[in-house]
Amino acid sequence: MYGETGNKLVQHAKRTQALAHLPPYQTEMVRAVTREVRDLDKDVATILEPFAGSFDPSSEPATACALLVNHLCMRRNKRCLLAYHRTRTDKLEEMCWGGIDVLERQGQQQQGNKTTGGEATGGMGQDGNSSSLSPEEEEYVRQYSDLLAAYKGQWTDIDLTGSLEPPKDLFIDVRVLKDAGEIQTEYGAITLTKNSQFYVRQGDVERLIAQGYLQRLS
Amino acid sequence: MDIDDLLAEVTADAVPQQQRDLQELTRAWIAERVAPELLPYPAELMERVLERIRRQIELVEDQTGNLDPKANFKLIIIQTELERFKFLVRSFLRARIKKIDTHPLHLLALHQNPPSSTSILNPLLSPSELQYLNTHQSLLSTHYSSSFLSQFPNSLQRLDDTAGGISMVDKPDEETAVFVRCLRDVGEVWVEGTDNRFQMKRGDVWVVRWSAVRGWVGEGSCELI
């Protein structure tokens, strides 16, 4: 009661900031905090009921104090919830900017969990729904990607999601880590087969580096 | 006005527009990355730069078929330059988006009711940035309300509440220190809330509170570094 769960949620959010991936959505905790807020609101209503709208704080300091604590706790809980959700959405947005397909990765993770879960007969104690995003968050990611694509579309020449490192060389050495098939460049087509090495224009392969197909050699 | 100022004016006119644009873009880019708050969008400058980038890309595409080694070499130089320009613009826009994401409601209020000191010529946000901000904000609030806010008591559902003495709308810290270089004699600068007064002369570098030099930077008398 009085903000304890909210505090846990914020600590969770703080941990999330340092992680590379997104930990599972704390549905239970979010619900508990929301419930707490509703309970507090009910408390306030019950306390105020006998006064019938003519409450004078100076004549009843004890009641006024209780009301104040309740109000502050509600606000605090709201802040905690907002902070928790904002941290997660920030993380998701970062992934969108980084060109990571969050939903696809979630799907893979889910499938991976299912297969391992099948072998270990659910020994991990995971329930069937093991996606670390809440349904609302999945929806959010989908819409944010659309928004990002729309904004990016106005700057086609610039490629907004490109590298934020200042470019030094036009051409770079890359090694192929995974077969990526054939790509078209201004100097003809290159077939990227695993373990081969190329000297190519940076702009042509930036995407592939970000996706992990190629490795840049310095 | 002394001879230095006169010389400076003459040389400024002699520099071709392209080079001045590059200088302006670099300056805007540095300023945007250093300043704690969002700066007005340089619409005209961006238009010119983007137009030039587009032309260069066309030129590169036209010339790729050319196998003459001399032309090829020239092309590589153009492409390198092009990549650098693209980087500047990209980094500039991303810096702005980052600030827009951090203080959306504050910026929206500022954009709609700009303080009288800013010129009407350059609004704070470009139309596409404004659109991005609005859409993003509505996405966020839908997300919040579907996640938990809709179950809250009505009085607590707002996202821009100022009750209880604390405003929910975050503002950038305008009192952080920035490094500035004076491009012209500014005269006496007074830091609000303190007794610090000092003379800023052309070529000086100072570490000052942003709120104290904001006006000079906007006007072009100082540049952020």
From TrEMBL, chain A:
GO biological process: DNA strand elongation involved in mitotic DNA replication
Record Gene3D superfamilies: 1.20.58.1030
Keyword ATP-binding (UniProt): no
GO cellular component, one term: GINS complex
Regions crossing the membrane: none
Keyword field contains Ligase: no
Domain (GINS subunit): residue spans on this chain: 61-155
The entry's keywords: DNA replication, Nucleus
Region (Disordered): 107-136
Name of the protein in question: DNA replication complex GINS protein PSF1
Organism, as annotated: Amniculicola lignicola CBS 123094
TrEMBL record, chain B:
Record has Nucleus as a keyword: yes
GO annotation, biological process: DNA-templated DNA replication; double-strand break repair via break-induced replication
Similarity remark: Belongs to the GINS4/SLD5 family.
Natural source organism: Amniculicola lignicola CBS 123094
Protein name stated in the entry: DNA replication complex GINS protein SLD5
Domain DNA replication complex GINS protein SLD5 C-terminal: 172-225
Pfam family, one: SLD5_C
Domain GINS subunit: 58-147
Signal peptide: none
Main location class: nucleus
